[in-house]
Automatic annotation (TrEMBL):
<dbReference type="GO" id="GO:0042162">
    <property type="term" value="F:telomeric DNA binding"/>
</dbReference>
<dbReference type="InterPro" id="IPR005161">
    <property type="entry name" value="Ku_N"/>
</dbReference>
<dbReference type="GO" id="GO:0043564">
    <property type="term" value="C:Ku70:Ku80 complex"/>
</dbReference>
<dbReference type="GO" id="GO:0006303">
    <property type="term" value="P:double-strand break repair via nonhomologous end joining"/>
</dbReference>
<dbReference type="GO" id="GO:0000723">
    <property type="term" value="P:telomere maintenance"/>
</dbReference>
<feature type="region of interest" description="Disordered">
    <location>
        <begin position="1"/>
        <end position="25"/>
    </location>
</feature>
<protein>
    <recommendedName>
        <fullName>Ku70/Ku80 N-terminal alpha/beta domain-containing protein</fullName>
    </recommendedName>
</protein>
<feature type="compositionally biased region" description="Polar residues">
    <location>
        <begin position="1"/>
        <end position="13"/>
    </location>
</feature>
<dbReference type="GO" id="GO:0003690">
    <property type="term" value="F:double-stranded DNA binding"/>
</dbReference>
<feature type="domain" description="Ku70/Ku80 N-terminal alpha/beta">
    <location>
        <begin position="42"/>
        <end position="187"/>
    </location>
</feature>
<dbReference type="InterPro" id="IPR036465">
    <property type="entry name" value="vWFA_dom_sf"/>
</dbReference>
<dbReference type="Pfam" id="PF03731">
    <property type="entry name" value="Ku_N"/>
</dbReference>
Amino acid sequence: MTSSNTITSSWASLSDRDQDEFDAEEDIEEEAKKLMTSNRDAVLFVIDASSSMLRANQSDEATEIPFRSAVQCASEVMTSKLISDTTTDLIGVVFMGTQKSSNTLQKEHIYVLHSLDSPDIQRVKELNYIASGDVDFDNEYGSTDDEYPIGDVFWVCSELFNKETSKTLKTKRIFLITDQDNPHVSNSVLYSTAITRARVCIFLIFNMSFFEDFS
């Protein structure tokens, strides 16, 4: 009788220990998930679609179209996150200098192709399609050389970041790709407004990187 009680007690002890180990593993996995989501990045690719970005640079030996190269870059970043399983990060793509407009602030010549969201294969396919040049760009988006407030681009980006209310974002960044380093050279008012808005947004919301002569 004593032996039976001892065996039963031993099995119960082992069962409790196994359960404790299982619970510990669950706790570790949960903490790992929290750590992963607490280090998320949010990146917006803002790509200039004005006419100069849609033609090859005649001074270069390369024949790449800067706009297409920039879109391909966004696709590759998204693909790398899919491959490395960092799909908790957020990526968005915005075109500026388009004839058509698509943004909730109803700002002209700004087209939000992808709002901030986790990367997925359908978005990659769409970016690759645009980068290939097979898309009817004039019909889908159009291009304009009309002057528009660059400051509006920063407001649209701010609004996209503000929609992402999660407090687990480690960084919020904009990659601005253009071949124009001074879009308001003859309009001091728009120039001043753009600088002010950029400074406010950088101070309050996100980091910004500029890429010129992209090809």
